Amino acid sequence: MIDHSILLQKQVILRYLSLLCLPSSEFLRGNKMIAVENQAVVSENAIPKDASDEFTVPESNAFGQSFRDYESTVRLSIVENCYRLHHINQTYDFVKRTREEYAKLNKAEMSIWEAVELLENFVDESDPDLDEPQIQHMLQTAEAIRKDYPNEDWLHLTGLLHDLGKVLYHPKFGELPQWAVVGKKCSLTK
User: Fold this and answer.
1) Which among 62, 75, 8 has a CA at the least distance from the CA of 35?
2) Lower CB count within 10 Å: N or C terminus of the chain?
3) Which of 125, 117, 41 has its CA nearest to residue 75?
4) Does 137 carry a binding-site annotation?
5) Which cofactors does it use (predicted)?
């Protein structure tokens, strides 16, 4: 008998790996762009532009919150070091080897919740806003979405699982360095 939960978990991991280092243009769909940083869908027509047709940064996002401030965070040196290592080490050859290694799906077998629990002591070094364990961030994200969209079960689940790929940092999954697992995705060329 086929265990569909295991197949789903393997598909989630493969999907995450397929997104490693794809250019943001990969996420363009018609006149909508999926912003990978915050998983929000933004219409190109909604981007404010001034008279010279250059992008103007708004004071706040659609929810009235300010945007990330990388300069005044107490975590600045941690974030800078993570991205420095990312830009030095995230090469085409590294990504190719990593995809080949993880496509074998031989690192671990567990439930989705067991994978979430692996992130109990993981703090994302690329995030200037959070110094809490990733599991707490995932639960808070799911709960915030549930509060705002109570009838969208699929969206609650998406909020919970959106950072699940960070389990690749855990020893059970090969203990990849944080620069290989977290942060913004970049495009690579041969």
Assistant:
1) 62
2) N
3) 125
4) yes
5) Fe cation
